[in-house]
Sequence to fold (153 residues):
Amino acid sequence: MPDEIRIQSLVDEAIERGVSAWIEYPDVDGFKVKVGYLGKEEVLKITDSSKEVEWRKHQREEKVDRVKLTRKWADKGILDWKGLTLKKLSEFFPITVKAEDDNKDVPCTPENKYALLTNSTDFDIWLTRVSTSPEYFVEQLKKREGQVDELKK
Fold:
C-alpha cells in the first residue's frame, strides 16, 4: 500500500515553514505588504488568545479584547512593508505632511502596523481578506517554483 497522504501534516509543514507573499495594496501605488498567511486554525488561535473572561452576576462571560486582537493580527498578518511614504500615508488619513517630508519612509514597526489597522477600515478589510485567502500565496509559490525551474535549465 502506498504511503498515506496526511493533509494536516502537509498544512503543518507549510505553516511551520512560514507562508508569506508580497502583495501590493490596491489603493496606494507602490505600497507592498509582506502578508503572512493565516489559515482557519491560526485565526481561531489569535481570536481565542485575545479573549478575556469577565464575571457578571455570577455568570462567566468571554469577551474579545479588540486591542489585543488587532495587535496579534498585525503581528501575524503584516510581516513587513515597503513603499509607504508619508505622502502615501496621507491617502489613508487626513494628515498634513510638509512637502519636504513627502518621500520619508514610514517604517514597519509594531506600533505603525497597529495604527494602520486601527485607523484604516479599508486596509483592515483588505488585510483580513488577503491574509486568509490561499490563492494569493499559491500564486506566489507557483511563481517561485517557476523561477527555480528556469534557473535549473
User: Anything to note?
Assistant: The mean pLDDT is 87. Residues 57 and 63 are 15 Å apart (CA to CA).
